[in-house]
Amino acid sequence: MSAVVFEGDYEFPLMVVRRDALEHNIATMAAFARDHGMELAPHAKTHLSKEIAQLQLAAGAWGLTVADTRQARAVRAFGARRIVVANQVVSPAGLDWAAAELAADPDFEFLSFADSVQGVDILAEHAGERPFRVLVEMGHAGGRAGCRTLEEFLRVAAHAAKTPGVEVAGVAGYEGGLPDAHHVRKYLDTLTEALGHLRVRNPILSVGGSQWFDVIGRELAAVQARILLRSGAYVTHDEGYYRERTPFNRIGGELRSALEVWAYVLSVPEPGLAIVGMGKRDAPYDEGLPVPRREGVTVLRMQDQHTLLRADGLAPGDLLSFGISHPCTAFDKWRMLPVVDEDYRVVGTISTDFH
Predict the structure, then answer these.
(1) What is the CATH architecture of 254-351?
(2) Quick one: pLDDT at residue 209?
C-alpha cells in the first residue's frame, strides 16, 4: 500500500501534486482545443517536467512550447518531436544545437519567433542543412516583443522570405497582457490581417496565454490556418491569479488547483501572529501570496524561509495547507514533487529540469 505523505519520511515544507486535478486539467484543455479546431502546444516553462510533458503529449498535444533553447533541449529529451520557442532566438550555442537536431532528425520540427531583420540575420548565420522556420511575431503597444505596425511586420516577413536558411511558417502573438475581451478581439483581428499578407502554404497562427483562450476559440474559428494555442498555466491551475482569470469563469467547464504546499507552524510569538516554515524558496509570490486553506488564517507577508500569518488558535507543530498563486513560478522551486491521490497517498513523483 502506498504511504500517506504525512506519515512517511517526507520533510516539510513540501509541495504536492494532486493527481486527480492534474489529469483533469490536461484532459479538459485537450478537449477544449480539439472541440474548437485548434492544436495545443502547451508551454512547458510552467513545469519543465518529463512526467507532465509526456502526459500532455499522450493527451494529443501537437508539440511543446518553451521560452528558450535551454528549455528546448530539456523537452527534446522528454520526447518532444515538435518544439516552439516562443521568443526570438539569438544564442549561438542554442541555434547551433537546433541546427544539429534538425539535421540529425528529418521528422523534428523546430519553430521560433522573429520580429526584426537583425533577428532573422542571426538565425541565418547559424542555419544548417534545413532552414529555421519562423513565426513572425506581431505585438501590440505596451506589450512584450513583436512588431508594432503592419509595415514593420511585412518588412520582417519579406526579409525572412528571401533570406537563405530561414523560412516563414506563419504568425505569432501574445494576448495575455491585454486588459479585456474587446482589446483581445482587436488584437486577434490584427494578427489575422497580418496572416493574410503572407504567402505561406499551410500557415500557422500561434497565440498564447491562459486568460483568453475562449475568445481565441470563437474569433479564430474561421481562419484558414493551423491555430496553435500555447497555454501553460492551465496544467495545475491555482487558487489565486488564474482562479480569478480563467476563461472557465465565463464558459462551461472548470480547471482544478493541483498544487498544495504543506508547512509547519514554527512559532506563535505574540497573540494573533504565527510563523510558518514556508518562504519564497518554497512557494510563488510574484502574482499573489499563498492561499491558506484553513478558515481564519491570513498571509501577511513572506520572507526567504518564513511566512507570517494572522491567525488565532495555532500552535507550534500544527501542519497547514496552502494553495498557490501563479504556477509558472512554482515548479522551479522544487526538483522532485510527490503525486498524491485523494487520500494523500503517494502514487508517483514529478521531477523538474530547472537549473
Answers:
(1) Beta Barrel (2.40)
(2) 78
